[in-house]
Structure formats: C-alpha cells, structure tokens
Amino acid sequence: MSFHFTTQEEAIIATIAYFALFEYPLTMFEVWQYLLCAPREVKIHDIDDIISTSARIHSVIKQKDGLIFLTGRGGDTSVRLDRYRDAEKKYIIARRAVRLLAGIPFVKLICVVNRLSYSNSRPEGDIDLFIVAGDRHVWLVRFLCTTLMHILGKRPGQHTVSNALCLSFFISDKNLSLESLQLACDQEGIPDIHFALWLTQFVPIYDTGGVYRHWYDANRWVEKYVPNRIATTTHERRTVRLLGIQKLIKKIGEYFFSIGGIYMEAVAKWYQMKFVAPDIKKMVNRDTRVVMNDGVLKFHSNDRRQEVRDKFKTLLKVLCG
C-alpha cells in the first residue's frame, strides 16, 4: 500500500475512511475539500460522478441524508447533527473567552482547533485554542492567557469544569510555518496526514492585521497532502472584534509591557518553566509532541497522531489493499 494513490477512487475512499475514525460522515463538498493526495486535479462535480458510477466505491461506501460514510461506520447520521448542536453551545462559550483573551497585549490571532473546529465536538470535550502572539512575546502571552483562564476557573482539571479552555499551542507571528512539527514519514512512507488535515480545519475567531491569512500562506506545504484546502471564512456569529475602549486598553498594556522588553519575556519564561510538570519536562523538545522555545510553545503530551496514523493505515489496507 502506498499513500500516493493511483486512482481518484482510492483518494475518495481514503478521505472518507479518515473521517470515519472520528465518526464523521462527509458531505459531497467536504469529500472534495479534504480529498487526500488525488493523482490529478479533481473538481467537485467529478466527486459526484465518481461516487455515483464506481462499483468499487459502492462496495464500501453508503449515502444517507446527504452524507457519505463507510459501510458499517457512521450510518447514524443524526450523531453529526447532535454534535453540531453541542458545537454551537461550545462556540458561544469560546467566543466569550476569546473576547477576554483577545484583549491581552500582543495577542494577534486566536483559532478554535481540534474536533470543535469542524463541529464534531462531544459534551465532555474541551475547547481547544491556537494562539499567535507578537514576536518576542510568546512566553508573556501564554502566561497572561493561562493566568486569566485559571482565575476564571476555565482551565482543564479545575474543579472538573466542563467546556474547559485548553490553551496548549502558542506560536509567534515570526514562526507561522508549522511544517517542522510534522511527524516523520513512517517505514511505509506514510506522512503525518492527521497533522496536515488538522491544520486545514483551524477556525479564526479573533484576527488582527490579517494574521490568519499570513499563517495560511505560510503553511501551503499542507497542499502536498490536501490539495483542495481552502481558507476558513468564519461566520460573524462566531467571531470577536474588540471595541474601541478594549483596543485602547490593549495598546496601553502593550506599551507597558514593551518598556520591560526582553526582560519581561525572560521573567515570564523563567516563571513558567518552574511549574512545568516533571512528566512534561522529560518530553520537552525530544520530538514534536512538546515543543518549548521562544517561537513555539506546544504542549501536546497526549499526542495521538501516531495512533491515528496506525489506525488509518490499517483501515486503508482493508479498503484499498
């Protein structure tokens, strides 16, 4: 089995199979949008034609209520609607939190990530955020953001709080490309497809100065695996804009912290390093799960990318041979 598919049918089956791992049936448009490594350019109408006429696809895929899924996996399409309803509730909570976080000095971009980003959340799930900070302020921004959420009792593990805000991924606006954080290809040549697809699903909630577009352009390497990747345009009901007084307070805060400059950043780094859990500290910069430097702070100690890749490979071997 090779990840470089030789037919469009294989690419379609693989794409649907990947999302089957997360119990997420796809619309026709989503099959096209997330299509994995097709051998040549594929239009949306091509997807419809191939699915409608391919006996091979019909042998492993079913359709119901406008959704496409693997036979025996994802047939209960009402689950997707239930999770969408849960996601709507979580986005309301996320928006309230982001309104506060966006006012923190040097915060440039805040995106919802993981399963909530594509409205596949579950009631017990956290709200995961990705934050871009101004250059040379990533440690300070993380300190201020996590402190604020801790004070509000919104961090994971605090009093078994539901819908907790997980702040585990910060980068600076000078380190927008995340290509170096991929897992290396495994022995069978399978790349870190989970990470690539994960990056296509970021939903910008707060964006200042067009940072999301810069981030999107800096990660065009993803298109090697997801060629139909498109930028997310977030509906206004899910976005945050600072009011005039909030912008003023934020500018004053940035001026205040800029006076300390490198010293303030160094203090924030020193303080946070003191409280890194021993099990996390053992993982720091050993691989791409936990990364800590002056441009990237990534705390994914429970990184499931290898597990997802193994399950994906196993499923592909069954479906594609």
What does this protein structure show overall?
With 321 residues, the protein is an alpha+beta fold. It folds into two domains: 8-76, Orthogonal Bundle (Arc Repressor Mutant, subunit A); 95-304, no CATH class. 42% of the residues lie in helices and 13% in strands. The chain contains twelve helices and eight strands. The protein has helices at residues 8-20, 28-33, 44-53, 55-58, 78-101, 138-151, 193-199, 211-218, 244-260, 262-274, 278-281, 305-320, and strands at 61-64, 67-70, 107-113, 127-133, 165-172, 203-207, 290-292, 296-299. It has a six-stranded mixed beta sheet with strand order 6-3-4-5-8-7, with helices on one face. It has a two-stranded antiparallel ribbon with strand order 1-2. Strand 7 and strand 8 form a beta hairpin. It is globular. The N and C termini lie close together (6 Å). The mean pLDDT is 92.
Q: Topology of this protein?
A:
Elements: H1 8-20, H2 28-33, H3 44-53, H4 55-58, E1 61-64, E2 67-70, H5 78-101, E3 107-113, E4 127-133, H6 138-151, E5 165-172, H7 193-199, E6 203-207, H8 211-218, H9 244-260, H10 262-274, H11 278-281, E7 290-292, E8 296-299, H12 305-320
Parallel strand pairs: 4-5
Antiparallel strand pairs: 1-2, 3-4, 3-6, 5-8, 7-8
Helix pairs in contact: 1-12, 6-10
